[in-house]
Each structure stands twice: as structure tokens, then as C-alpha cells.
User: Fold these one by one.
Assistant:
Number 1:
Amino acid sequence: AMAGRRRPNVLVTGTPGVGKTTFAEALAQAAPGLRHVEVSRLVKDKKLYREWDDEMDCSIFDEELVCDELEPMLEEGGCVVDFHSAGFLQDDWFDLIVCLRADTSVLYSRLERRHYPAAKIQGNVEAEIFQTCLDEAREAFEEADAEIWELQHDTQEQLEAGVERVR
């Protein structure tokens, strides 16, 4: 469907707190012609959700609305898309999937700094332990030509090495 794109699209996925936005921004800066698309911000700004989860204080995004918003951007290519959920995205939209991983203690303190409620921190730490995002990405893209890279992202050195590898 998107065979005509001139520049590749990269999906950066992983549990909340692994550093997707930091990584995607660094990658977009390091690779001219790539732009960062932060899906959680799009969801908020363009109201791509139909309900709100009060307990977890987050929107329950609408997959169809998100896809309709992303598709024209991705057709051009050159997007670094950052989102924690990959299962609903079309598998021919991306040329590379980067799943970031973080040590649970690093993840815990990052989420604490965001003032997440304890239940939300626990849920995300468990999701990282059980590699939920990695498994979701593997399942979503198993038929696709795109490669899936798992990159550890606990330190600035790992950030720089990961960006260098992807670029």
C-alpha cells in the first residue's frame, strides 16, 4: 500500500517510561529527513479518543481515529512514530520497528518522576517484565518485511548507541 514512499518510517514502541519520546526526538535530530510523530500527543491534541480512564488518568485512544490521522503522514515516509501500542497499526506502514526496553528500577523511577499513580506504575513495570510491548510488536509485524530491533535504553550511552545503529 505504501510502496511509493521515498523515506523509511520507523516505529519506536515500548512500555511507558522506556524513553520512546526521548529516543524518537534524538533519532529525528540525528537523521535529516526524519520527523518525530508523538502519537500520545496527537491523541490528546486532536481528541482521537472516545473515552477517558479516570483511574489511570489517560485517554482510551480510538484505533480508527489514530490510523486515519497517521496514514497520510506515513504515506510520505520519513516518520519516526512513537507509541506504546503497536498491535492496531498496519504492518506495511513501517520499515523498522524499534522496541525499547528498560531495567525495571530505571523504569520505576522514571514513572515516579511523572507522578503516575502507584497502580499505573505497577502495571507498567509488570508489562515490562512480561515484555508485553515486544510481544505485541512481534505479533503485529510477523507477516511484514520490517525488522524488529530490541534496544536497551537505561542510559545516555545506550541512547546514543541505539540512535547511531538505527540512523
Number 2:
Amino acid sequence: MNIQHLANQLSQHKETKDVLIQIIEYLKANRKKPRVDEIKFLLKLMRHYISRENKKSEDQKIYLWKEIDITDLKRIKTIQDTLLTQELTGFLYEFLKNRDDEVVRESLMLSLAYLYGGNRAVQEQYYNEIASDDENTLLIFLYDKLVEKHKQFKKKELERVEMLYTQT
């Protein structure tokens, strides 16, 4: 089933808020021993659920949005506030340190949707998470990930260039 279609179905459910709360409770309960495929799916579903509110750009990734109606932004803020009351920030912060690249990617993408529009309360909660991390584990983890990805890119690029020179 298409995840966007599923997000649309979720929005039409009479108990949408309760379903979101159950998803978050499931994620909380499984954050120590996550089932990676389920985590990725649920993070993606929540991201699509938020992003579908921008009627002008619902097919685009959030970071590509150029405009949004104020009514769409208010609906997104309502969703963000619901997620905030369920303490999404804390375990989303933990998922950003997951070993699986796709979980990290989906956590970042959901974080973009969750922070979209400058929701001050969400921003403060993220700030508090980062500020309370005395050992900077997230920043060190992300740095290590970036270094690892850069090395992989560099290796692939060297292989590509070498192949180009050997073929001609």
C-alpha cells in the first residue's frame, strides 16, 4: 500500500489522534530493541501524515516547500502539538543515533516535518535534548556518520574516475 495513501486514510479516521498516540507509544516501547523495518515505516507514516497538510506541495519533500497557506500551517502546528504532548522529541532524538542509515534518515525527515513552521515549543524541546547531552553523543555520532559517508563517496568516486581512464 502507498504510504501517502495510508497517511490520507489515517487523517480520515475518526480517532486519528488516538492512532497517532498508539504509534508513538509503540515507538517508545520499542526504542531500546527496535524492529528496524517497523520503525522506518512508522516514522515515514508520521512524516507523510504531517506533510499531507500542505495542499500546495504535498507531493514534495518538506525541505523543498516554497510556500504554504496559513490554514495548512495551523493544521501542521496542531499535529506538532499533539506529537509534542506525547514526547516525540525524546525518542526521535534517540533514533537519530540508530545504527541503521534509513532509521537515521527517516528520523531526520520526520524532525524536519516536526520542526516545520518554527513551532517554538518543539524547538525548545530539541534544544533541551541537545543541551542535556553533556557528552555530545548525537553530534559525535552524526560527525562519525558524515565522515564514514564521505569516505565511501571518495572511494566510489576514485573507482569511477579510474574506470573512466581505463576505458578510454
Number 3:
Amino acid sequence: EHVWLRTLHNEAALQTREIEEGWACLPAVDMAVHMATSLRFSNSDMSKYVMWDMDSERSMATWWNHSAGRQAVERAADHLVTVQDQGGNTKQCHQNAYGIMKAGEHGGSYPAATFNTYGNTGGGDLCMAVGVSTGGKDGWSNNMNGWDAPRSDIDWPNAAYSVPPHISVWLK
């Protein structure tokens, strides 16, 4: 929960398009706060994707900071964001200065653009989030409904939730 997109993990796997086993990331918070304006989830060959502008109120103290805890994330102001896919389809979704799903039973998934203010998920829409834990942590419980991302390269946008994500996260 505290390492996804915050530390180097399995960095050798980042040299390939397909991560065969487990997951990999690099510390991306500083880049996301100070250099980038938008975020993209894509499949392995980048032919399928969703993208949105990151919250304008994000900071080094808030962005993807799961350890801030559920109560802090739930108190954060909600902002509408337009998510767009590779075909130009759009959907209004919700995000906050933490970039973390608010729903208390969803595990604090991030990055997240959620279906509604509460932080719910919905399969088959463009609002998505990456599940970061299988158990409860930092005040969240976890029924796995926060795992709201495609489970394969062809499952776009995503037919269901509660499945392990199969995506790449890009900053622009």
C-alpha cells in the first residue's frame, strides 16, 4: 500500500512491455505533482487506454499517499474529471487531492477516477482505479471492489471489477 508508485519495485521488469510475474513501479509522486498534468492507464501495446487530468489540488503530502489514512481521503474535496479513451469516448468521473478511491470498503485504490463522489466502482465504464492491497490498511477495509481496472490486454475498458489489474500507468 505504501510502495506502489512511491518506490522502486522490480525495476528490471520495467525494461519490458510485459511484466511476466508480479508488478513493478518507480517512484512517480514527484513527477506526478511537479512535472505532469495527466495520467493514462494503457494495455501492453498502448492501443487501448483511458486518460484524465490529475487533480489540481494534489501535493507531495497528498498525492497517492495511502498512509494519510481513510479519514483524510474521505474529507478531501471531490472534483469532476473527464476521462477519455483511445476512441474519443468520454465519461465524467470523480477524484480528489489524494488521487485515492474514497470508499471505505474498497481498500484505498490508486490512482483512481471513481464512478461517484463516494468512490464507487462500475465495470464497463471509463472510471478506473488500481487495487493496491488485498486486506485492510490505514483505516480501509477491503472487499476487492476497488480493483477497477482491466484484467487483460483485451478487457477494455473493463468488463468487471474485483479483478487483478493488468495495466501500465503513464504520466504526461
